[in-house]
């Protein structure tokens, strides 16, 4: 494996995909292995996502710090703007966040209007 990881984010992304393909894997296969959607793995390209960063790095036999030095500390912890935030919400907290949040969507009324038209 070529250990010269590109610094440019778009080149790095292509390099990661190439390295996965050279090992007989892909982002899609990785998402299936992790039980997440394909979009979850794609988010790593645009924003820090420690769980996916760890999974991709592990698949390549690297550390997340080696792949994303700007996102990880030397001690193996992710750099965070909100350092006390957990990586996963507990189920109850996640449900409360979803239930208490009004999306402002009026999809049911729109569907009913469309059916009547």
From TrEMBL:
Ner winged helix-turn-helix DNA-binding domain residues are: 18-82
Keyword Transport in record: no
Q: Does the keyword Transcription regulation apply?
A: yes
Keywords assigned by UniProt?
DNA-binding, Transcription, Transcription regulation
Q: Which residues form a coiled coil?
A: none
Q: What InterPro entries does this protein's entry cite?
A: Lambda_DNA-bd_dom_sf, Ner_HTH_dom
Q: Which GO terms describe its molecular function?
A: DNA binding
Stated family: Belongs to the ner transcriptional regulatory family.
The name this protein goes by in its record: Helix-turn-helix domain-containing protein
Say which species the protein is native to.
Vreelandella maris
